[in-house]
Design brief:
With 117 residues, the protein is of the alpha+beta class. The chain has a single domain, classed as Alpha-Beta Complex (Ribosomal Protein L22, Chain A). Helices cover 35% and strands 38% of the residues. The protein is built from 3 helices and 3 strands; from the N terminus they run βαααββ. The chain has a 3-stranded antiparallel sheet. α1 crosses α3 and α2 packs antiparallel against α3.
Length: 117
């Protein structure tokens, strides 16, 4: 196994705004994979459940497809991008209409071995 190898997992079209997901993602970036799952398990945010699933998937991919030891893996890359928006209309007074943007997100997590400095 090469030191620079990353194994990733992606969740696309998640029905939550990127702003809410990034708030939780920033807390676990760079952590040990199993330690991050423990932290997320006790967070009261819906975003924590989503990110927990993606990290678990990345760890499983590394273990089953690339024969990595899960205890040695760290979150080396983690980011949330905006996805497509569902556009809705909210009727307002005097015949006006306001736009409602229901945002979606793409969550990407890559795990790998920690670099030795």
């Amino acid at each position: 196994m090469s030191q620079a190898m990353k194994v990733k997992a992606v969740a696309k079209g998640v029905r939550m705004s990127p702003f809410k997901l990034r708030r939780v993602m920033n807390l676990v970036r760079g952590m040990n994979g199993l330690e991050a799952l423990d932290h997320l398990r006790y967070m009261p945010h819906k975003a924590a459940r989503i990110i927990e699933k993606v990290i678990h998937s990345a760890l499983s991919n590394a273990e089953n497809n690339h024969m990595f030891d899960v205890e040695d893996l760290y979150i080396v890359e983690a980011f949330v991008d905006g996805g497509s928006m569902l556009r809705r209309i909210r009727p307002r007074a005097q015949g006006r209409a306001y736009a409602i943007r229901k945002r979606t997100s793409h969550v990407t997590v890559a795990v790998g071995l920690k670099k030795e400095n």
